[in-house]
Amino acid sequence: MKTVVVLACLALALAEASMIPPKVVYKTKPVEADFVTKQEKILKLFVHPEQVDVEADYYKIGKEYDIEAHVDDYTNKKSVEEFWGLWKTGFLPKNVPFSIFYERQREEAVALFHVFYYAKDFETFYKTAAFARVYVNEGQFLYAYYIALIHRADTKGVVVPAPYEVYPELFTNSNVWYKIFRTKMQNGVFTPDFGTEQGIVQEGDRWVVYSNYSDYLTYPNDEYKISYFTEDIGLNAYYYYFHSYFPFWMDGDLYPGMKERRGEVYYYFYQQLLARYYLERLSNGLGEIPDFSWWHPIRTGYSPYVNYFTSFVQRPSYYNIPYEKNSEELQLLDTYEKTFIQYLEQGHFKAFNQDVDLRNSKSINFVGNFWQANADWHGKVARKDNHNSYEVTARRILGAAPEPVDKYTFVPTALDFYQTSLRDPIFYQMYSKILKYFIEYKKFLTPYTQDVLHYVGVKINEVKVDKLVTFFDYYDFDVTNNVFFTKEELKSKQFPYYVVRQPRINHKPFTVTVDVKSDVEGDAVFKIFMGPKYDSKGYPINIEDNWQNFVELDWFVHKLTKGQNKVDRVSTDFFYYKEDSVPMRDIFKLLPEGKVPTDMSTESGAFPKRLVLPKGTKGGFPYQFFVIAYPYTPAEKKFDAIKTFEWDSKPFGYPFDRPAHEVYFKQPNMFFEDVVVYHEGEEYTYRYNTPYYTVHHNEVTKH
Ligand SMILES: *[C@@H]1O[C@H](CO)[C@@H](O)[C@H](O)[C@H]1NC(C)=O
């Protein structure tokens, strides 16, 4: 009898353990008092961004501030004139969606960014931001503000909050909002069974809403199988950060180090993102990323249930692009593709006062600029903004939105925002198309030979990888910023807060051990990649067709000594990954102690750590690791700003940055190791969000 009781308690304890996300201890670093003040001011503008709080510190400052009267406080007066010119003729109104992909809205957002950027000191910047916080469209303000914080010299190192806390409505499905708004309006769950059935639980001073990822209603094909990945808040936040660091419209001169490599960063970013996505497709049985044509119906439908002031456009399967209506756009896309191939065949790009050698590997920067149609690719030859951008046009066509009514009124699609683009499967098909043009360019480059790849005197004898295990665990994120409060509530600060609880893919930490024999001494770079072992049909992959499908997991420098060297790398130290952001609520608590979280302040551009491994299967899914060692040459100082991407003098992604010759990839300083990824625990995320779990949870908290 006793054992039964003990077992029952144990079962409850276990259930409890898996119910609530574990408490995390944040890594922090100490900061000076004036940094704390600055950080606090910055964060406060992010609180309830869709409401103007007349009691808040920023309100009076922003309400009274006059940018034009302070024109001397900006280091670039033209930027003030430009902004003011637009402001006088009318800006995007409040309470409508803002998208950077619409021309007039973009012009305004960029002008706003410029006044933020050219404010001569922090005080002026703050006043300008407070002004915009009070008067400008919510999304437009946040957009320009984020980018300014990342790029201003005097806000380097400040912590910017995770986009899913700032715009939670773009990271959650609308049924969650029904539940939250109802809970708020009825001041709790009206009947206990409503809470149980709908997954709404009160825990202390917060409401927890369990949320499923989208299913087959949203993804009519099999794509719903990986919605836990495409809708992962960390992944979508990552894409938003990438854009904030490298906005396509930004003049390369504003960002040191960017100009020479932004096109290369562009290629590398999308290549890695798609390679990672492909690995996830493989273990879920989805296979290759499908191709599509501009001239045939778009097979992949997408019906998001996302609301951003208004509901998102739903694209049916076998969507017929309205060819006549979009003839200009389709012509642009077609010409863009053909122009590129023509220049490529000729080996030179000659236009806009440039003559680019398309047989040179360094021209990757140009090729990236061309496909991104960013502010650097025309050189300084003026051409309005990126009116003729392939990306922007493709997003418009594939988004399937009706034609906009006027310069401000449009029906939003997932592709209109960096926060939601990764949810739509067509996104990956579109970038896969673009990457194929890069590959065409790369096919003209001389593949690396033995001379380049070889590392004299260094031999990797063995690579050992721990058992690789993925699992789902709950993660809470604060969505209170999209809940509306009365003046009294805001004043009293006495109100519950709201979090969404979702199971997210995670993995057990693992170690990679590299056994190296060396006849030389010196600093060596080690890189660890993960790639497919078999293609979607089950055939062993050939590296010559798959070099672009390898994901870079780690980069580090190790001092080799003569003789045997044993190098251990723990996955938690992998170079390209960061922890989840610390919730704003907790940052506000850390500040009075003179601390800020380390991870978010320095590595905002890195990939979410939870997503290192693609989801495994019960019986194990095969992949392979590839390890290479090569002599270390540090990157030039001027590339400091982009060091989240790489930190030596090789091209990003080396040696998989160009077509590979199988025979040369058998050097002693390289090693391919077969690995298997297992998945433990519940296999499907929706199973976590059923009353079975939430009821249990209720029972436990009552005791
Ligand atoms: C999640 O989906 C499952 C399966 O459809 C359903 O039983 C459950 O109630 C859903 N949970 C929530 C919180 O919506």
From TrEMBL:
Tell me the protein's name: Arylphorin subunit alpha-like
Repeat recorded as keyword? no
Q: Which residues form the Hemocyanin N-terminal domain?
A: 35-157
Q: Which organism is it from?
A: Vanessa tameamea
> Which segments constitute the Hemocyanin C-terminal domain?
447-679
Hemocyanin middle domain location, by residue?
A: 162-438
What keywords is this UniProt entry annotated with? Signal, Storage protein
Q: Origin, by domain of life?
A: Eukaryota
Annotated signal sequence range: 1-17
The record's listing under Gene3D superfamilies reads: Di-copper center containing domain from catechol oxidase, Hemocyanin, C-terminal domain, Hemocyanin, N-terminal domain
Q: Which family does the UniProt entry place this protein in?
A: Belongs to the hemocyanin family.
Query: What Pfam families does the record point to?
Result: Hemocyanin_C, Hemocyanin_M, Hemocyanin_N
